Amino acid sequence: MNHVDKYPLLEKMIEGARSELPLGVVYPLSAPALESVFDLIKRRLCIPILIGPKDLILKLAANEGLSLDGIEIVDTPNDPILATKKAVALVKEGKLAVLMKGSLHTEDLMGPIVHRDGLRTERRTSHLFLFELDNYPKLLGVSDCVVNISPDHLQKIQILKSSLTALNKLGVMDTKVAILAATEVVHPGMQATTDAKEIVDSHTENPIHPSTIIEGPFGFDNAISIQAAKTKGIDSRVAGDPDLLLVPDLQVGNILYKSLIYMAGAECAGTILGAQVPIILTSRSDSVFSRVASSAMAILLAK
Prior knowledge:
Blueprint: H1 3-6, H2 8-15, E1 22-26, H3 31-42, E2 47-52, H4 54-63, E3 72-75, H5 80-92, E4 98-101, H6 106-114, E5 126-132, E6 140-143, H7 153-169, E7 176-180, H8 191-205, E8 213-218, H9 220-224, H10 226-231, E9 244-246, H11 250-262, E10 267-273, E11 279-280, H12 288-302
Parallel strand pairs: 1-2, 1-4, 2-3, 4-11, 6-9, 7-8, 7-9
Antiparallel strand pairs: 5-6, 5-10
Helix pairs in contact: 2-12, 3-12, 5-6, 7-8
C-alpha cells in the first residue's frame, strides 16, 4: 500500500502545500539530509537553499551520485553553529521562510535560534506533531513531545496558544483539546492533574483561544475513546474526538509519539513553533514521508 492510500490526510496536506517559498536546510552533511532536498523539489513544495560548507556538501553529493546543479548553496565554515547563525541572519534578511535541520545536533541548531539575538518571539518555543492513525478519523495533534521538558501550567498555556494558532492556520477550527494525565481525577500530588485544572479554569474565565473547547485532566483512554469516558461516567464534549492532546511533560510526549509510530503504525508531521519562522526538526530515524509531511506542514504555516 502506498502512502496516498495509507496516509490520505497527510498526503492531502502535502498536495496543498506546494509553493516557491525559500526553505533553508542547515548543515546538510548526511545522505538523508541531501535526499530530503530532492524529495522537496520532486513534490514542488519549496525552493531549498543549502547552508553549510560548500566543498563538503558537493563532495558528499558526488559520493551519493546526486547532482546539485541549480540548487543554491550558501557557503559557511565547517561548523554547524556558524551554519545556523548564517541561517538565522538569512531569515532576518527575509531570504528564508522556513528552516530545516540537516545533520547537526538539535542543540547546535536551536541554540542560536533561541538566543536573544536569534529568532525568538514573545511566544515560548514549542513543538506540534500531527499524527495520522488507521483508527482515528482526522489528524491528531500532540504537543509538546520535543522541546519543553517539564512545563508548568503557565508554560503549557503558551504551548496551547501556539498549537491552536497553528491548527487554525492548517484549517482545523472549533478545536477540541484534551489535557492528558495518568488519571481524570485531580490529585494534589500529581502536577499534571492540577495543571489541567488550572488551565481549564483559566480558559473558562478568559479564553486561551477563540472557539476552542479545553477539558481535562483525562487519562489517555478517556481522551481518545468515548466508550471509555462513558464507562467512567465522564460527561465530555472532547472525549473521543480531540483535535489536540496536551501532554504533561516531554517524557510522556516522547514515549507516546514513539509508541504511535512504532506500535500503532502511525505517520506524522511535526514543526517547531514560536520562532520567527517554522522549523523542521528531522531525525535520522524519520521516514522520507515524515520528512516531506513535516516540510509541508511548516510551509503551510509560513504562507
